[in-house]
Amino acid sequence: MFGLGAPLWLLALAVLPLVRWLHRWQAPLAELDTGAGFLWRDGEAQRPGAAAERPPDPAWRLRALIAALVILALAEPMWSRAERTVTVWVDDSLSMLTTEHGQSRLALGLDRLATTLNEGQTGLVTLRSLTDPTAALAADAPGALSPESWRRETGTPVSPPPPALMDSSSAHWLLGDGADSRIAGWAETAPIERMILTGEATDNAAVSRLAVRRHPADPRRLRVLVAASNRSRSRATRRLILESDGEPVENRPIELPPGGQISFRFEIPAGTGRLAARIEPGDVLAADDVLAVSLDDVRPVPVRVDPACPAELGRALRQHPGLAPQESAPALQIVCGRPPVAGIPAVILHSGPTERIAAAPTWAPGDEAAGAPRLREAWLATTGWPDEAAGRGYETVLQAGDEPLIRRASRPFPIVESVIDMSARSLVRQPEYALLVDTLAALALGRSPLDPVIVGERSPGESDIAPLAMPPVHGPSAPASAARASLTPALIAAALLLLVLDLLRTVLAARRIGRA
Predict the structure, then answer these.
(1) Distance (Å, rounded) from C-alpha 200 to C-alpha 222?
(2) Residue 244 burial class via C-beta count within 10 angstroms: exposed 0-12, middle 13-18, buried 19 and up
(3) Three-class SS of residue 446?
(4) pLDDT for 132-150, tens place per residue?
(5) Do residues 478 and 170 touch, judged by C-beta distance below 8 A?
(6) How many CA atoms lie within 13 A of 95 on its CB side?
(7) In this predicted model, what pLDDT tens digit does every residue of 445-504 receive, in sequence order?
(8) Residue 54 φ/ψ, nearest 5 degrees
(9) Distances (CA, A) of 327 to 84, 103, 295, 334, 445
(10) Dihedral pair phi/psi, residue 19, rounded to 5°
(11) 101: left (phi > 0), else alpha (psi -120 to 50), else beta?
């Protein structure tokens, strides 16, 4: 639809006849001396400097066109059409990585979306993730909708937005495979006007859980639990392969009942890097055929101990199954007088004259629930906080009355400071001494080094790839908006081009007259 932003400028088109009239009046021709006046007997005498009325210069048409273009540009012409902004909610859960017809379901869906947008009149298209509704990718053209441009981390559980919070000024579409029951339930109440669904395959097997811990009787071995699930309607036969640091340590055939899950237990030599469980042969959803965890947290933590620390503390560290005192490449440092090395989690034990505490020690609620040892006031003596530690603003972990005994901070790197006398015989003789050492290390590391269990898992529902029945779509809820394209720049450009052509014509005409 054509329209004008300032139509009153069209009244200025009335000046175009004036352009033609002005081109009828021209300056007289140049004088030429002649010796035969009788040759000009029929000539009409003119006063010097007078103008002559002649047929208008044909150039008036070009100049009138230039004036008309300028006037039309001032009238702000524009072309508008009805368009609707579209928000496409993309299901980027794990099932969308299923390979069908040589492409992932996500790639197939984006191709179909681009085709649909090419066939209709839509404005700005915004893609939003159903795993992270705050993430958006705007695409002004359907060609921008490609798997390469959609850089979401596919495989995260979906979290659809509440329908009441969805933009009412935009049309909402859904792109997915219909395999997630949470999305199907959300689409029943969400204002979805159109669904672009991909997905045909229904059978899939997966590794759903991998857990590993140190063997309690032999730190050189690991105990491993692997769970495999079958999201198919028929029995599945696979081989389960366990790899430690890239080398296979277990390889056995397994039978998975339809719709069930089976767990398998292994004992393997302790590795140093990565443990992975894989089932073969693979299927249409290769992303859930393997599950891997890092073994870094299973190995004993290398600890550098300050020689100034009490001998009792050194013995407790050497007996701890999850701590390994060593000087090179420490992951934890315990210092008893010298400054800690920046960047390495540290436990700082202050020293000095000691005195008994006067109140029962109490842990912060979260640390007490995490298994911190119960300490009695009769066991503890405190060395007092040095002046330079008084204003650091640490979080208090353990206190006796109003006096902090253990503090911690996470910046600039994890630091735990304590004024508990770790050489007091009343404390060293208690079984809780070893637990206190473990607690100090755990506060600095962010985890207990005593008996860590490393778990990698995905819920069985994440491996469901069979499309479900989707609810019917809703009618259009957002009105179409007008998309306008201004024609003023094009008119100005055309007028400038014609003006240049007119100047060139004038210059060439003057040069011809000069040569004559």
Answers:
(1) 41
(2) buried
(3) coil
(4) 888 777 655 444 556 555 5
(5) yes
(6) 32
(7) 988 888 888 899 887 678 899 998 898 887 665 554 555 667 788 878 888 888 888 788
(8) -130, 175
(9) 66, 52, 21, 11, 18
(10) -60, -40
(11) left
**E strand segments, 310-444:** 323-325, 332-335, 346-349, 355-356, 361-363, 381-382, 395-400, 403-409, 415-418
Work out the number of other CB atoms within 10 angstroms of the CB of residue 327.
9
Token pair of 414, please? 């994890």
- The number of beta carbons lying within 10 Å of the beta carbon of residue 454 is 18
Phi (first) and psi of residue 117, to 5 degrees: -70, -35
Reading the block at residue 363, the tokens are 């842990």
Q: Using CA atoms, how far apart are residues 42 and 457, in angstroms rounded to an integer?
A: 112
Q: What is the mean pLDDT of residues 433-453?
A: 88
Cβ within 8 Å of residue 209, ≥6 positions away: 225, 226, 227, 263, 291, 455, 456, 457, 458
Task: Give the sign of the dihedral formed by CA 488, CA 492, CA 493, CA 494.
Answer: positive
The number of beta carbons lying within 10 Å of the beta carbon of residue 395 is 12
Buried b (16+ CB within 10 A) or exposed e, 263-298: eeebebebbeeebbbbbeeebbbebbbbbebebeeb
pLDDT classification of 29: cutoffs 50, 70, 90: very low
Two tokens at 9? 């400028």
**pLDDT for the residue numbered 279:** 95
Q: Provide the CA 143 distance to its chain's centre, in angstroms.
A: 21
Q: How far apart are CA 395 and CA 101, in angstroms?
A: 57
**In this structure, is the dihedral angle defined by the CA atoms of residues 167, 171, 177 and 180, taken in order, positive or negative?**
positive
First to last CA, the chain: 54
DSSP state of 124: E
d(Cα 238, Cα 244) in Å, to the nearest integer?
20
Full-model pTM: 0.63
Q: What is the DSSP letter of 264?
A: E
260-279 pLDDT, tens digit per residue, is 889 999 999 888 789 999 99
Q: Is 226:242 a contact under the CB 8 Å cutoff?
A: yes
Q: Which two tokens stand for residue 431?
A: 């079984």
What single-letter DSSP state applies at residue 200?
-
DSSP assignment string, 401-440: TTEEEEEEE-SSS-EEEE-B-TT-HHHHTSTHHHHHHHHH
